[in-house]
Design brief:
The protein has helices spanning about 10-15, 60-65, 90-95, 110-130, 135-145, 170-175, 185-190; strands at about 1-5, 20-25, 45, 55, 65-70, 95-100, 110, 150. The chain has about 190 residues and is α/β, with parallel strands linked by helices. It has a 3-stranded parallel beta sheet, covered by helices on one side. The chain has a 3-stranded antiparallel beta sheet with strand order 5-6-7. Helix 4 crosses helix 6.
Length: about 190
């Protein structure tokens, strides 16, 4: 079994709920190889959705780079950020968020939920399949014997929430369990 808990909770309290669980920090602050599951981790070579030939260092760089504000458009420099720092683009600096541009060459702006569906979820899936498959497989195997608690700062598992950021730990759990959101066969995607 895989469950998601807040990184802000005390480990002792989590272990009261899930005795003998394996606690797995999958945030950018993880102290072991699980940090590679963070959307901030700079794997490099991640295809930017709807942007043929354009690659990014990390998923968060894609998400932030395609964000469009009332005072500023996309920022492709975010795709190159491989430091795990200074990736967030905020309303304080750039004005109200209008949405996410559907790729670097488009002018179509996707709303928050649609951007999660078409940009964030597919980009993160690419990382799970191409950069961290071995880690996910170890989590899958371990979850057959023991409870795995994935720690994340965001714990929202509702991909359609218009107000809360989606937990990448949820995407890890869903992928490990074969329930990844909006799975589409390649043939369907190309139709």
């Amino acid at each position: 079994m895989i469950v998601i808990e807040s990184k802000r909770r005390k480990v002792e309290n989590i272990l009261k709920m899930y005795p003998d669980a394996i606690i797995a920090d999958v945030t950018s602050n993880a102290k072991d190889g699980l940090v590679k599951l963070s959307p901030f981790y700079p794997h490099g070579g991640i295809p930017v959705p709807f942007s043929e030939g354009t690659k990014a260092a990390c998923v968060e760089g894609i998400w932030q780079g395609l964000k469009v504000f009332e005072n500023e458009g996309i920022d492709v420099e975010m795709f190159r950020n491989d430091t795990m720092k200074n990736i967030k683009r905020t309303v304080r600096t750039h004005g109200r968020v209008l949405g996410h541009q559907k790729g670097v060459r488009s002018r179509e702006i996707l709303g928050y939920v649609e951007a999660k569906h078409q940009i964030y979820i597919p980009a993160y899936r690419w990382v799970l399949e191409n950069k961290t498959a071995d880690i996910v497989e170890r989590l899958r195997e371990a979850s057959r014997e023991r409870t795995i608690v994935l720690l994340d700062y965001n714990t929202c598992c509702d991909v359609d929430s218009a107000t809360k950021p989606l937990s990448h730990a949820y995407l890890i759990k869903a992928y490990a369990e074969g329930l990844y959101p909006f799975e589409r066969k390649e043939s369907e995607a190309s139709e």
